[in-house]
Amino acid sequence: MKVLEKPRSFYQRFDRKPGAHPYTTHYCPGCGHGVLHKLIAEAVDELGIRDRTIFVSPVGCSVFAYYYFDVGNIQVAHGRCPAAATGIKRSRPDSIVIGYQGDGDLAAIGGNEILHAANRGEDISVFFVNNAIYGMTGGQMAPTTLEGMRTTTTPRGRTILNEGYPLKMCELLSSLPAPVYIERTMMTDGKHLMRTRRAVMKALQCQVEGKGFTFVEVLSQCPTGWKMDPALSLKWIEENLAKAFPLGVYRDEVKDREPHKRRTWIPSDEDVLKELELTLNLGAESGDGHARLVKGPIRFKFAGFGGQGLMLLGEVVADAGMRAGNHVTWLPSYGPEMRGGTANCHVVVSNDPIGSPVVGECDQLLAMNRPSLAKFEATVAPGGSIIYDSSLIETPPTRTDVKAIPLPATEIADQIGSTKVANMVMLGGLMAHLGFPGDEETRETLMSRVTRRELLEKNFAAIEAGKDQVQRLGGR
Ligand SMILES: Cc1ncc(C[n+]2csc(CCOP(=O)(O)OP(=O)(O)O)c2C)c(N)n1
Ligand code: SF4
Fold this sequence. Notes:
Layout: H1 32-47, E1 53-57, E2 72-75, H2 81-91, E3 96-102, H3 103-109, H4 111-120, E4 125-130, E5 133-134, E6 140-141, H5 160-163, H6 169-173, E7 181-186, H7 190-208, E8 214-219, H8 223-226, H9 230-244, E9 248-252, H10 269-280, E10 298-305, H11 310-323, E11 327-334, E12 342-350, E13 362-367, H12 370-376, E14 380-389, E15 403-407, H13 409-416, H14 422-434, H15 439-449, H16 453-473
Parallel strand pairs: 1-2, 1-3, 3-4, 4-8, 7-8, 10-13, 13-14, 14-15
Antiparallel strand pairs: 5-6, 7-9, 10-12, 11-12
Helix pairs in contact: 1-7, 2-4, 3-4, 11-14, 11-15, 13-14, 13-16, 14-16
Bound molecules: thiamine diphosphate (TPP) and iron/sulfur cluster.
Iron/sulfur cluster (SF4) binds at residues 27-28, 31, 33, 61, 131, 135-136, 222-225.
């Protein structure tokens, strides 16, 4: 005897929000989503895969599917289901990943995602709810809206000339070689419900066997968006939607395909540590010019106008800090102008992992024009320091609780023969003042970035000149 009961893959109570009925869904009366949910839940039960099923909810009316399915759940950004599902499946190859998407989600904003996931033959099952409209947002035109159909964005009816042809996703995806199984069904009566049930089962079974990408499009009723009563919407599907989107199997190579396993590499903790040691050069001894781990985090701001090389200056400090075995971040911020706008970057160098790359209060400010000093002077922590280009900034900082170091960087750079290397003079000043970054790492960094020998030499000369100046004169 078969007992008809709520599928075990549904929660017994739908505790969505205080005041909401715990045994009903949020869907409108007559909506197709709930029906398809039930068919999917039954198939998950029948295949015994509840413990390893991960359901990816979209943005759309079915966004709350996670309140109903008692499986692993994740809700993703609009249209991004195939990308998220790809990541989940590849990192957890034994899971059964269900993508569930509406026509706006799958065929409009997510059009490229589904195409590429299908083309890669990802081992996921996608259920595509085609109700020819954006239900959740109030009935706008979807890529699958029929010609002549009135929606809130096509009040006089969709025209081919203005909005193009309705997109036929089964036909489109079946032009790709990778998918294993593609079928379009509807749920208008018992016979078609059974067909849809079989299609859902088949898609999931195929994933259990590891055979590749499966896609089931279900023509689904949206009485609210269509402004019809539920009975009429079933009729409308039969008479209109199913004519424009013919039902049937578009691809079935389930029997012919061999189960495949992707090459996956999930790093162990040891692998990760080994990798980090390699790239961060952890454990190297100091004294040889390497591994100058800073004590605490040092927060830098490098500021000036576009074209002064502030970004490069920050990058060199971050890169050299990384070569010494520290954690580092570098965060640029520029105005929209190509030349002459404001430019600054935030750099953090730390012995410990860094929580955020954004520097509010900084320990070291390198300012290369007046507006930058005016803007950032107040953000320097008490006890911190400001190195400023005194060739361009006549008025020194006013703070008395920070060390102010004037450095005529632009003048020195001009003497070396290139105004452009003023940023490196500033770097030299920083190295002399702070003892960081180290000589060796800075040399390595610059050699990896500057290929022209002549320019490289000017950079080194600028650094030495900046150091010399700060060592001789210091600051207050
Ligand atoms: C990035 C982004 N753009 C737009 C929206 C607004 N939005 C929410 S649902 C939706 C369309 C839903 O339609 P469909 O995918 O057909 O699902 P249905 O609601 O009909 O089930 C849109 C455009 C959003 N949430 N996020
Ligand atoms: S608007 Fe349409 S798709 Fe959304 S819940 Fe209502 S009937 Fe279903």
